[in-house]
From TrEMBL:
SUPFAM superfamilies (UniProt xref): Terpenoid synthases (SSF48576)
Biased composition (Basic and acidic residues): 330-344
Key words of the record: Transferase
PROSITE patterns noted in UniProt: SQUALEN_PHYTOEN_SYN_1, SQUALEN_PHYTOEN_SYN_2
Region of interest: Disordered: 317-344
Listed name of the protein: Phytoene/squalene synthase family protein
Origin species: Jiella sonneratiae
Taxonomic lineage: Bacteria, Pseudomonadati, Pseudomonadota, Alphaproteobacteria, Hyphomicrobiales
Amino acid sequence: MSIASEPMPPQLATSTDRAELAALAEDTIARGSKSFAAAAKLFPPEVRRSAMLLYAWCRHCDDVVDGQQFGFARRPAAELPAPMQRLDALATDTMRALWGDTTLAPAFLSLADVVARHAIPARFPIEHLEGYRMDVEAERYATIGETLDYCYRVAGVVGIMMAMVMGARDDRTLDRASDLGIAFQLTNIARDIVEDARHGRVYVPAEWLAEAGLQEGDLTDAAHREAVAGLAARLVDHAEPYYRSAFFGLSALPARSAWAVATAHGVYRQIGLDLKARGADAVGTRISTGRLAKLRHVALGAAKVAATRLPLPLRRPQELYARPMRRRPAPGEERSSGDRRTGP
């Protein structure tokens, strides 16, 4: 999936083609993520359309790698090519889209249009594919820093691309967008510990498992439900400073886009809080927010945006994850893969 040079800019879709792609994307979102669908309705029309097109590519990649449709109905492995073959095909078609090939499936044409329209660097969709490679190779994570590397690639990068769709370009705002994606992914991991383990995926760091006295195989064992609930709660707690950092990033977004992001922020954060509150009873179930709760977060989102129109502290805590391009060694030190220091 590495490339020797930056691809040439892909072509913009025609207005007719883009409308058709957007209709397909909207259907994908409605079936694949009710939470995102609810928040997306708050975006201005053009931002909403690009956000949906970007989501359609992400959803397609996720489904292809997992052998699913819209995040559900996992197909028998015998009916599918090997996981690495599926990933290689995704990477090939993504690169073809970034090079301007207009003969591809709608998900890839959707990505090409968004990348061209919003001048999104090719490295971001490529980094996102790297997250899928980590899944396909069933990587394990020794430390929470390594888990955060994974979260950045599968979700932080998406947050950055979404922020660019909304007009953000400065690194500080993109850092906050990455923080929100990371917070979302930590919430997902906490909610799906058991389900993921059943499919051979473990994102909880090995050091946390050891501290809880657990082996990977214990995650699906009902006898260890209390300990697994403790791990889920720890992940929810770890997400909190990322949600807090992302909140302060709302001030850099146009008000209506900030409203949509604030609503998604509230809905997803609530999933984690509910998961933690239910403890062992939530282990192995899928926590979600109901319609009334979503409407409440729409209203709360508006209040959050109003609050962030006021001067607020913008400095991001240095202990938070630093995305790769923002890492730098201290004077006299060599850069290392474990460096977590942020930029300014």
